[in-house]
Each structure stands twice: as C-alpha cells, then as structure tokens.
Amino acid sequence: MSTYRNDVLELGLQSDANILKFLGERVIHSKGANSFLKQMRALHRGGELNGKFSRYCSLL
Question: How far is CA 9 from CA 6, 21, 32, in A?
Fold first, then answer.
C-alpha cells in the first residue's frame, strides 16, 4: 500500500539519483552543499542550465 510518506521518500531517492547522474555527466564530484552550489552557479553562468530552466517553465 502506497502512503504519502513512502511516495515522498521514493521521490527524494529518485531526485538524489538524478542529481548525481547530472553531476557525473559533467565530471563534478562535489558532495558538500557549498561545493555543489559553487558548481551549479558556474553552470548557470555558463548557460548550461538554460534548457533545463526552459523545460521547467514550460511544465508550469
């Protein structure tokens, strides 16, 4: 039986896996929050996230 708690936990695990895959494709091995944010800022400044932002906005 699926519960809200299980659904949230499953979604969190799925998100973690997707983030690690995304970072692995870009050869980024940062695990800490501050290091991760630095890497994401650099990707954002470089325009590498524009496609992801556009896709997200189209879903809204």
Answer: 5, 18, 21
